[in-house]
Amino acid sequence: MSGAAHLFSSAVTAAAPSTTTRALASVSRSRSRPSFLSYRRNRCHVRCSYAEGNIKPDSGSATIDVVADIKAERLVVLGGSGFVGSAICKAAVSKGIEILSLSRSGRPSYNDPWVDQVSWVPGMYYLLSFDEAIQINQSYKHNNDDDDDVTFENRVSCLTPVLCAGDVFYVNWDEVLVGATAVVSTLGGFGNEEQMKRINGEANVVAVNAAKDYGVPKFILISVHDYNLPPFLLQSGYFTGKRKAESEVLSKYPNAGVVLRPGFIYGKRKVDGFEIPLDLIGEPLERFLRATENFTRPLSSLPASDLLLAPPVSVDDVALAVVNAIRDDDFFGIFTIEQIKLAAANVKV
Prior knowledge:
Helix content is 40%, strand content 21%. It is α/β, with parallel strands linked by helices.
């Protein structure tokens, strides 16, 4: 079935539906919504002439008509209304890239000019128990007996990874991924161990596989620097989730997957109508660490030293590095803090 719903997990609390029927109705409504990213190409028609080097410039030659199909750049941003996601949307819009954002809240509350240039798709979150989730699938199967493409077992396998997290995020990929040329995921968050493994790891794994299934040529993951932490500290749900997502990106996209590993990201963060100026901390700290790096470099081999010595990264640099990844086919693999800044500089030039 073309409108089959897939699932994400999230550690964000949402209101539970009063009945299973409400959840089913919401899924049904989401399937009827038209696609925001219709697949189309721009046709470029060029007329040119050719003359050999020994022919005078005013000599005439036969004209050649060249017609080329140019595929427009379309980026899907998972978590586009968040701090990093909104910066990516803004930077991509400024470069003429078509954007669709999928996030919990949909369109942000502020009215910056670039906001109108993005297609905002809200996700749907429900608190479901295991029994409620199974009931949804059984009811869905009962109402779609003629649907041979989506089996009950497949739907259960989609549900199983996220059931214990409590929140279920229904996504109709037909509305999101059709026609996309790249996907960037900013999904991540904190919570208990299981929640962090799901939102940082399994949710991104689902997204990577969906993008691959829909033939999206590039996937970009916003991950995290390891801060030179000792191995036992990297076993937390946050880092194991991130590394699981990285492994999936590099496995499914060996020659096109991009993993960005920034440290502390600073900029003006908007929360509930208020602006938190993280740049007042991050920008001077970045300058200070840059000025003292010759003195602090010998300390970089110490365990966990990067908790103090890893330079912060501007959210604008992270966004521009994403733009660079979209446009440079040779840009793939894992990128460190310094490499993120170099990639951003390439776009600024």
